[in-house]
TrEMBL record:
This is YbaK/aminoacyl-tRNA synthetase-associated domain-containing protein. GO terms for molecular function: aminoacyl-tRNA deacylase activity. InterPro entries: YbaK/aa-tRNA-synt-asso_dom_sf (IPR036754), YbaK/aa-tRNA-synth-assoc-dom (IPR007214). Residues 56-172 form the YbaK/aminoacyl-tRNA synthetase-associated domain.
Length: 186
């Protein structure tokens, strides 16, 4: 199957390649429900050595600069209580942690979660964290520009592959909230 974005050798419906996904992502795909059919979640293999954005785009297609998104685990603090959340923004943007994310989470302070926390709490590899399969009780902030994309490339839970799915599918994930201006151009 040909991927709808990027220049990948093959794309497979994610339900057909559950063994290539990390456990939380595979569980989310198995239990997929909503307006977008599970077979519209596509898996593509990628070389982890080519994960740097410039190299990735050069290797897999220049269109991916505007059609791929990063999922960032953040830690929000309010009244001495810590809450983990995630933000999803275009790869060409940075997450507005101290503005939009802080306001949406009603937090006094928001920061990027430490590497170890992100990995242990998600069950995913650092550099491959995806909104698909995050803990269901986490707030999931999706930049409106990502949700509006016909197709968006995100992590697959591992650095060896990516998922391609309609942007609107991200807005239906557990805890998802679409936020205008969550991502700011770099």
């Amino acid at each position: 199957m040909r991927a709808p974005i990027g220049d990948f050798d093959n794309a497979w419906p994610a339900p057909e390649v559950l063994d290539r996904l990390t456990a939380p992502v595979a569980a989310a795909v198995r239990g997929w429900a909503g307006p977008v059919p599970a077979d519209q979640l596509l898996y593509v293999e990628t070389d982890p050595e080519k994960a740097d954005t410039a190299v990735f785009v050069e290797t897999y297609g220049k269109d991916l600069l505007e059609t791929s998104a990063n999922c960032v685990v953040i830690s929000a603090k309010r009244g001495g209580e810590r809450t983990l959340a995630a933000g999803v923004v275009l790869s060409s943007c940075r997450l507005d942690v101290n503005g939009a994310a802080r306001r949406e989470l009603g937090a006094r302070k928001v920061s990027f979660a430490p590497h170890e926390t992100a990995v242990s709490e998600t069950g995913m590899e650092y550099g491959g964290i995806t909104p698909v399969g995050l803990p269901g009780d986490w707030p999931l902030l999706i930049d409106a520009a990502v949700a509006e994309l016909p197709w968006v490339l995100v992590g697959s839970g591992s650095r060896r592959g990516k998922l391609i799915l309609p942007g609107k599918a991200l807005a239906t994930l557990p805890g998802a909230e679409v936020v205008e201006g969550l991502g700011q151009r770099i």
